[in-house]
TrEMBL record:
Main location: membrane
InterPro entries: Aquaporin-like, Aquaporin_transptr, MIP, MIP_CS
Domain of life (superkingdom): Bacteria
Cell compartment(s), UniProt: Membrane
Family the UniProt entry places it in: Belongs to the MIP/aquaporin (TC 1.A.8) family.
Gene3D superfamilies: Glycerol uptake facilitator protein
The name this protein goes by in its record: Aquaporin
Alphabetic keyword roster: Membrane, Transmembrane, Transmembrane helix, Transport
SUPFAM superfamilies reported for this sequence: Aquaporin-like
Amino acid sequence: MRTVTLRQCLLAEALGTAVLMLFGTGAVVVNEQTHALGHGGIAAAFGLVVLVLIQGLGHVSGAHVNPAVTLGFWAAGRFPGRRVLPYVAAQLVGAFAGSALVKLLAAPGSALGATLPAHGAAQAFGIEVFLTFWLMLVILRVTSGFYEQGLLVGLTISATVALEALVAGPLSGASMNPARSLAPAILSGHITAAWVYVVAPVAGVLLAVVVDRLLELRPPEA
């Protein structure tokens, strides 16, 4: 069986995160200019690109494309600590590259799909904690050895992303991903609440790891 190298994994993570930005935040920018997609279309774009990335790159790197997810897998004991920083670095590189390409399509003054609180940082923080908690919990549940069933894994995770984006997008942007939020925020200059989209996802995935352990099936006591 052929072994996947770390270099290949990092390339997949960088490429995957760039594609996430191109189709996800790219959908936001296209809708700003044409109003052709609407909020539902943007949510669908994020869900669909996540499905494509999982099916296309999951066998190479796991298709984390999200520093919070990488951290969550490490905290759950499913990912080696020595790979966490290289993965996060690759994801950030990919996010900035993808966002830079989106900027070429955007009109002057565009936020490039940056996630911004609709009603204050406190509300956005709480929403992002819950959204990332639920996303990570779903990921941990469906990728466990007992439940994993190929294509259904990608469909379940992408449906979760689309659902959360559809419902919570208007309130917090439904980021769940520090790389996805930081790149457009920095490139567009909308950095006031950027901390929300870094701290909240980290808190969310750590909470998910705790709950996942509480849900673990245990053999019956004798």
